[in-house]
Amino acid sequence: MENAANTEDRMHGSIFVLLKRFVENTFNYSTWLRLLKDAGLEGTAYEMNGMYPTRELFAIVKTASAETGIPTYTLMEQFGEFLVPDLLLVYHKYIDPEWRTYEMLLNTEASMHGAVKAQDSRTNPPMLLVTKKGSKQLIVDYNSKRRMAGVAVGIIRGIAAYYQESDQVKVTRISAIEEERVQIQVDFVK
To answer: Are 10 and 51 in contact (CB under 8 A)?
Structure first.
């Protein structure tokens, strides 16, 4: 019989390392240490190439939400935005330099998530299905048992900011955020 530790959902250490950087950047290093302690994870060190229980990420974010008064969803969205420059730096060779927000979203599943899986087979990024609804609208269908659509919304906004198109991209969640499957409407206004 497999024990729970072997079947528990785990996330790549890079997400934890980037969460630490997000907390330190948004608040400070002391806040990170306090969050770990208050989440029952004191002394835990996350390494870039490790694999860690997903529940630990949620424990840290929920503790941060309780201590700051910022809703969990909002923190996840802010974290998603924060991730974009690092993600685009790491995976730049999979990105066509001609792409902008629209093309990046259309190609995320094939290019970016494919690269993530190829670099480390232990990873399990969310499934994204992006559907064109004309030349000015995309529907992003986020599907993950982790229920982290807030991060996806933040990443979409972060991509628009990266390409200096924030004023031209409107991101609207069109289904409940806490579900495994969340639809996100992205409108391109000019």
So the answer is: yes
83: which 2 tokens? 């991730």
Average the pLDDT over 13-41 and give the result.
Answer: 96
How many whole angstroms from its chain centre is CA 128?
12
3-state secondary structure of 81: helix
Q: Which two tokens stand for residue 67?
A: 């201590």
Can you give the pLDDT at residue 115? 57
Average pLDDT over residues 29-44: 96
Which one has a higher pLDDT value, 90 or 167? Answer: 167
Q: Tokens 């970016």 sit at which residue?
A: 112
Find out whether 160 and 168 touch, Cβ atoms under 8 Å.
Answer: yes
Residue 127 has φ and ψ, to the nearest 5°, of -85, 130
pLDDT at 3 over 90: no
H helix intervals, 27-163: 29-38, 54-68, 72-90, 101-107, 114-119, 149-162
CB atoms within 10 A of CB 186: 23
**Looking at the whole model, is its pTM more than 0.85?**
yes
C-alpha span between 118 and 120 (Å, rounded): 6
Distance CA 134, CA 130 (A): 12
